[in-house]
Amino acid sequence: MSAIHPGTPWPLGSSLTGRGVNFSVAAPAADRIELLLFADGSAQAPERVIELDGRRHRSGDYWHVEVEGLSEGCCYGYRVFGPLAPGAHGFRPSKVLLDPAARAITGWDVYDRVLATGPSPNAHACLKAVVCERDGFDFEAHPRPRHSWQRSVIYELHVGGFTRRGDSGVPEGQRGTYLGLIEKLPYLKSLGITAIELLPVFAFDPADAPPGRDNVWGYSPLNWFTPHHGYASGDDPLQLRHQVRQLVAACHDADIEVLLDVVYNHTSEGNRQGPTLSWRGLADQHYYHQNSSGDYLDVSGCGNSIAANDPISCQLILESMRCWALELGVDGFRFDLGIELSRGAALKPLDQPPLFEAMEADPMLSDLKLVSEPWDCGGLYRLEDFPAKRIGTWNGHFRDGLRRFWKGDDHSTWTLAQRFKGSPDLYNDKPVQLGRSVNFITAHDGFTLADLVSYNRKHNLANGEDNRDGENHNNSWNHGVEGPTTNPEVLKLRRRQQRNLLSTLLLARGVPMLLMGDEVGRSQGGNNNTWCQDSPLSWMVWNDDQCDLELKQFLQRLLSLRRALTQLINPLAPPRESASRKPNDHSDLWRQWHGVELSKPDWAAWSSTTATSLHMGSRGALLWMGFNAYEEGLSFELPVPASPWMRMIDTSLPSPQDLPAEAVPFNGVTIPLESRSFVLLLAREVGSGLKL
């Protein structure tokens, strides 16, 4: 029999040594732990049970052991013994527990989530961790693109849904997988985006959904280290990490960064009626927020909330981030309900959360892009005062402000101007550093762009919850007809509004994010919460007959224009407003706002129009933009340009004249803006020679 050694508490999880495998797991209150070794993932019972001696195999809160003769592919789990305090949920030795730091998982073919909720000594029904390599990503061969926030454009997508359709052009065995996504990188590159943000790819429980439906989005993590097996090509758990590395390497080679939407705020173990799978059975009171009676406190909306600032949880989250960033090569993270991670004991919000402080001080994580949702389901919303200097936030106010303006709502013009110039009003009227605010109009959670202009209300009956799920306040507008129509006037207006929204998003100051398929008019039939729809309803559209190819071309040219004009439309420091311009300063960039008449901004409650121009020092205007969300066309006075005007965008024109490959000369001291349209003019010295 293989020799047993005390082992070491670091690294967490299982790791190969020169003579076998070292195992380490946190269980501060446990009296005894058994390490169970299995012949394979479907084994009925453990092949070997190793009892860890608290004197030889424990260092502080961590239990550890080194077993000689074991190698990569070894399957294992834990049984944990200890007191069961009143109301506590842990220490149920009938459960075979998954290592929270497992980097590979097996047993999906026999895993039974129902058995996991009640007493069951049957190890056959559990998931098992698999010992695997912990090699570092080859950054020398595939270096990080390291795009600046100034030039970054994020594209949010779902790994499975992006290539699931048969018309995706991806080989059948790779559709809906990490490797299948590699096949579509030329498409993503052609759009002009710089980063993809993947909906959760942590191993999650697809059965954590209403009967007859699947958890498709993946916001139900079973483990924070293992890639989700449902996106694998083949069923070898040891190949999963290699496939993720292949995807990240291919993205880096294409100059595209990879960001992960990560769920550290809750787990699939749910409330006290949920299954005991891993965390709960090992260190329940360290991983989850609880009251004095042992009841879970929940601000995630999913039954539990991670006590992220407990040292045990904090260390596990940091190690998970290092795993994905250093071993698998990803370039950043977007924290789902990330402000929850700032809560301390009794869910008290902390101004200096230990997790965020440790994250920002970790040199191994210092070059990553970090973004968070600034809200949680407990009502906490911290945007301008988000408690971490290096973590940007999703700006939901940007989404709402742009939707309301282009819908023609009252009290929306001033808000549009604020959002367009970087939302200084939300940041105490101080200049907002690029990367601090991620702007978006649509995201996975809500309407697609096509549905935003086609539906007044959500249509979620397919989700099986009587249309109760999903957001009710969408600031959407169907433009006269609910859903699909053949009415040419309605279709014309919807087409124009999509271009208005995209233009405002991508020419505003900040970091823009686009939603998968918006560029081709992908619709979800008015469903604004497709989390349980693994069907064409939520998949990417590839058939040209179902794609708005004119909209795709518009977006491609718009992104090309954004790149060409980066220093003007997205400068590192925001332009000064004309009222605060320094006298005799001939080099500074400054902005002026006005209504239909120059020098007369119109911020009235009923106003639906505005215009802005950019100037360099005492020279004339270099750029002018007009926004008309009014129901009638209007004529705007123009400032004196630094050189003759050229028209670059006019969303009222048919494609491709709405954004031609080259700017078109424009003569006049006024310009007509059709109802609900956007116009961009460039001074000839800026626009001449542009090829989009």
Q: Which regions have little confidence, pLDDT < 50, spanning 5+ residues?
A: none
Largest sheet: 8 strands, parallel, barrel
Overall spatial form: elongated
Spatial order of strands in the largest sheet: 11-12-13-14-15-16-17-18
**SS element count, helices:** 14
Word description of this protein:
The structure is a single chain. With 692 residues, the protein is α/β, with parallel strands linked by helices. The strands form five sheets. An eight-stranded parallel barrel has the order 11-12-13-14-15-16-17-18. A hairpin with a 4-residue loop joins β21 and β22. α8 crosses α9. The longest helix has 20 residues.
Write the layout of secondary structure elements.
Blueprint: E1 4-5, E2 13-16, E3 20-26, E4 32-38, E5 48-52, E6 58-59, E7 62-68, E8 75-81, E9 105-106, E10 128-130, E11 154-157, H1 159-162, H2 178-183, H3 185-191, E12 195-198, H4 240-253, E13 257-262, H5 279-287, H6 311-327, E14 332-335, H7 354-361, E15 369-372, E16 392-395, H8 396-407, H9 413-420, E17 437-440, H10 449-452, H11 488-507, E18 511-515, H12 549-564, H13 566-569, E19 576-577, E20 589-594, E21 609-616, E22 621-628, E23 634-637, E24 645-650, E25 664-665, E26 670-673, E27 677-683, H14 684-687
Parallel strand pairs: 11-12, 11-18, 12-13, 13-14, 14-15, 15-16, 16-17, 17-18, 19-20
Antiparallel strand pairs: 1-7, 2-3, 3-7, 4-5, 4-8, 6-7, 8-10, 9-10, 20-21, 21-22, 22-27, 23-26, 24-25, 24-27
Helix pairs in contact: 6-7, 8-9, 11-12
